[in-house]
Amino acid sequence: xxxxxxxxxxxxxxxxxxxxxxxxxxxxxxxxxxxxxxxxxxxxxxxxxxxxxxxxxxxxxxxxxxxxxxxxxxxxxxxxxxxxxxxxxxxxxxxxxxxxxxxxxxxxxxxxxxxxxxxxxxxxxxxxxxxxxxxxxxxxxxxxxxxxxxxxxxxxxxxxxxxxxx
Length: 166
Fold this sequence. Notes:
By secondary structure, the chain is an alpha+beta fold. It has helices at about 10-20, 25-45, 45-65, 85-100, 135-150, 155-165; strands at about 65-70, 75, 110-115, 115-125, 125-135. Helix 2 crosses helix 5. It has a 5-stranded mixed β-sheet with strand order 1-2-3-4-5, sandwiched between helices.
């Protein structure tokens, strides 16, 4: 992946995975996060994006964590075009841990993707279920739009500190 490429949409990431420009999980995660930042800035409350969500994304990249968590949204990125099976199980585990952390008071959203395919999940009092699946740009776009249309809860002290600088 050329360092001069800046991804501003999930469609651009999808295109570059299909064409083989994005070749590994690290490149895909970097591209996905760049596109996610742009999508969040377009769809969410600017104050929350700038002070809570973008810092959380940047921290995720610095730490090289396998998952991305923004408040009650968990994202698992798998190697390009590798399928979703392994990531689906990891995502479910991360979602269940987050749901337990909130003592079931907050619904948890999840996304697993390999840059081409994606599945969006929900975990709430009714249980864990797949909300939609399909190509990554459509599924990720729908999920981020839904996420931004809801109240974004503060899950832990790190979220609070990011938002208010306490």
